[in-house]
From TrEMBL:
<dbReference type="Pfam" id="PF13527">
    <property type="entry name" value="Acetyltransf_9"/>
</dbReference>
<comment type="similarity">
    <text>Belongs to the acetyltransferase Eis family.</text>
</comment>
<feature type="domain" description="N-acetyltransferase">
    <location>
        <begin position="3"/>
        <end position="151"/>
    </location>
</feature>
<feature type="active site" description="Proton acceptor; via carboxylate">
    <location>
        <position position="401"/>
    </location>
</feature>
<dbReference type="InterPro" id="IPR025559">
    <property type="entry name" value="Eis_dom"/>
</dbReference>
<keyword id="KW-0012">Acyltransferase</keyword>
<feature type="active site" description="Proton donor">
    <location>
        <position position="122"/>
    </location>
</feature>
<comment type="subunit">
    <text>Homohexamer; trimer of dimers.</text>
</comment>
<dbReference type="InterPro" id="IPR016181">
    <property type="entry name" value="Acyl_CoA_acyltransferase"/>
</dbReference>
<dbReference type="InterPro" id="IPR036527">
    <property type="entry name" value="SCP2_sterol-bd_dom_sf"/>
</dbReference>
<dbReference type="InterPro" id="IPR000182">
    <property type="entry name" value="GNAT_dom"/>
</dbReference>
<dbReference type="InterPro" id="IPR022902">
    <property type="entry name" value="NAcTrfase_Eis"/>
</dbReference>
<keyword id="KW-0808">Transferase</keyword>
<feature type="binding site">
    <location>
        <begin position="89"/>
        <end position="94"/>
    </location>
    <ligand>
        <name>acetyl-CoA</name>
    </ligand>
</feature>
<feature type="binding site">
    <location>
        <begin position="81"/>
        <end position="83"/>
    </location>
    <ligand>
        <name>acetyl-CoA</name>
    </ligand>
</feature>
<protein>
    <submittedName>
        <fullName>GNAT family N-acetyltransferase</fullName>
    </submittedName>
</protein>
<dbReference type="InterPro" id="IPR051554">
    <property type="entry name" value="Acetyltransferase_Eis"/>
</dbReference>
Length: 401
């Protein structure tokens, strides 16, 4: 099989959408081929061809992602990585990853990030598990601890048209300080809150809650049982500028009549757990969310800030992007970092995958060392480095892209 790789032209977008549908086992809807067109950037979307047939591909969205202390920074948001079911395990994905990362090296973003459909796929390409999300389920009427203030502002259910501009303002105000949050253009806002019948998975249309300092968006699954209604309220997104607004929005959702339970996915350190008087009422599980790849280790390391001063030489290995391999001195003074290539003896040895995992401050380098993914050479250097990488909150990406 002679495989070739190239980026798309706008004329290829329908074919690419068909490959996406085939790969994700979706029904191909010819009338909906334009639907995601504005999410793909043809010049940044690679496709692999077997002769004339497009058999796989993968895209990059040009976005920003907030990094610890460094605010929003450019990120290559990798999306729609797909191979047709009859062309798998023949290296098509590997060709796409090669093309993407080579292009990024050439003046692109220093960091790439993605959500993985399966967790075993991307480690080999240098992506590390950088963030987790929590799945929470909280019963209706769960009480808050007695010190909680809901403030005095009114919470209102409003139409989508009224909610959207307010949501965008709140999101933008929060984004610079929320590690893992992404910039969203109009198309991405529209896609994230797409609300046609088949987007709903059997649930209601979105309902929008507005607080002067926050918002929540949810769907409902009705469930009329013999003992009374036990509907499910699925929170799509909740964001608030103040603790009072946050508590008021949750109180509104938790006290909704006809509902038995609130279900949502959120940051693994979501304060909602600590709002509850009885934390065990919240059933919770965690899973991987963002996978991060440092495309240019030196630039990426200098792009974020750190929690404490440190001066260590890292011996970095990188099998897939060998330009990153070598010794880098990371020096942090007052939170600001420089990363310079040196010949000095290394203090810590690690793979680029481990650096990607630690990058957002959500995965401790000390844990990675216990998992034999990081090796301390100079005693004490690992603890110092691990501590410096931690952020003041867990990274979270509220949007699967
Ligand atoms: C960011 C995102 O878009 S995530 C979405 C990813 N896409 C999907 O899940 C859609 C369904 N799956 C697919 O389209 C394909 O199976 C893909 C894209 C996951 C893999 O594509 P392939 O062309 O089969 O991968 P390729 O042949 O290049 O495999 C490279 C290596 O990864 C391994 N690999 C590929 N897919 C998987 C997987 N799902 N689980 C574990 N290992 C995998 C291969 O075994 C191979 O290993 P080797 O180098 O040791 O031989």
């Amino acid at each position: 099989m002679a495989l070739t790789l190239r980026t798309l032209t706008p004329d290829d977008l329908h074919d690419f959408q068909r490959v996406v549908d085939a790969a994700f086992l979706n029904d191909v809807r010819e009338d909906r081929l334009d639907r995601y067109g504005d999410l793909f950037e043809p010049g940044r979307t690679h496709a692999v061809f077997d002769g004339d047939e497009m058999v796989g591909g993968g895209g990059v969205q040009t976005r920003e992602m907030t990094v610890p202390g460094g605010g929003p920074q450019p990120v290559a948001a990798v999306t729609s990585v797909v191979v047709k079911p009859d062309h798998r395990r023949r290296g098509v994905l590997t060709r796409v990853m090669r093309g993407q990362l080579d292009d990024l090296r050439d003046g692109g973003e220093a960091v790439a990030a993605l959500w993985a459909s399966e967790a075993a796929i991307y480690g080999r390409f240098g992506y590390g598990l950088a963030a987790e999300f929590a799945r929470l389920s909280v019963p209706k009427n769960a009480a808050f601890h007695p010190g909680v203030s809901l403030g005095g502002a009114r919470v209102r259910e409003v139409p989508r048209d009224e909610a959207m501009p307010h949501m965008r303002d709140v999101y933008e105000a929060l984004r610079p300080s929320r590690t893992g949050w992404l910039s969203r253009n109009d198309a991405q806002w529209g896609h994230h809150f797409a609300d046609e019948e088949h987007d709903r998975g059997g649930l209601s249309a979105y309902k929008y809650v507005k607080h002067p300092e926050g918002y929540a968006v949810y769907r409902v699954k009705q469930d009329w049982q013999e003992r009374g209604p036990r509907g499910e309220l699925h929170v799509r997104e909740i964001a608030a500028l103040t603790p009072e607004a946050y508590a008021a929005l949750y109180r509104h959702l938790l006290d909704m009549d006809l509902i038995g339970e609130l279900k949502f996915f959120t940051a693994s350190d979501d304060p909602v757990l600590h709002l509850l008087a009885d934390v065990r009422l919240a059933l919770r599980s965690r899973s991987d969310s963002l996978w991060v790849r440092l495309v240019d280790v030196d630039r990426a390391l200098a792009q974020r800030r750190y929690g404490s001063d440190v001066d260590v030489v890292l011996a970095v290995s990188d099998g897939f992007c060998p330009w990153n391999a070598g010794r880098v001195r990371l020096t942090v003074k007052g939170g600001e970092a420089t990363a310079q290539r040196v010949d000095d003896d290394p203090d810590v040895e690690l793979d680029v995958q481990a650096l990607g995992a630690a990058y957002l401050g959500g995965t401790r380098l000390t844990s990675l060392a216990r998992a034999q993914r990081v090796r301390e050479i100079t005693p004490g250097s690992l603890n110092a480095l691990s501590h410096a990488f931690l952020g003041d909150h867990e990274p979270h990406c509220p949007e699967v892209f």
